[in-house]
Amino acid sequence: MQRSNVPASKGPVWQADSAELYGDIRLHEGVSVWPKVVMRAESDYIDIGAFTNIQDFTMIHIADCPTTIGAYCSITHHCTIHGATIGDNCLIGINATIMDRAVIGDNCIIAGHTIVTEDTVIPANSIVAGAPGKVKATRNNFVANRLNALAYFDNGEAYALGNYRVWADPEQQAKMAQRKIDLEALLKNTHGN
Question: Are 135 and 151 in contact (CB under 8 A)?
Fold first, then answer.
């Protein structure tokens, strides 16, 4: 049951019944919140950007600052996000931890089991791994990360209707293939890559 002050007009596309949200939590259009997620914002706020997915068993809390997560992000299974800022189009890998006042730039991938320590700043388009997390490569991850977020948006819409197998549908697979072509063209036209 949702126990936050999320405005009804900005609620998630789908939220699992087992997700627990407490305090000042702001969910934008197209967000999906998956089973066993816990979010708590007692003295500050949590802001989850449009079309972002918060996957199973993730814990999001505040620190001496809010936690903000941009649009089209995937916060994957078992992550801990604590008082951090995450840009748009990011993928935070399974069991990663992002700590107080860390800042993750746009289009980043944080590998599974990575620990991004307090006050770390990760530049846009980085691939980060390790404990503590270090930049291992630089690459614009916009297309892959946006595709993942859109797949979860579609899955959330399907779950809201009781369809738990949309990803197996050939029409869905064709839709994702076309999206990849469209996003690659957008990236090329926007950045000349």
Answer: no
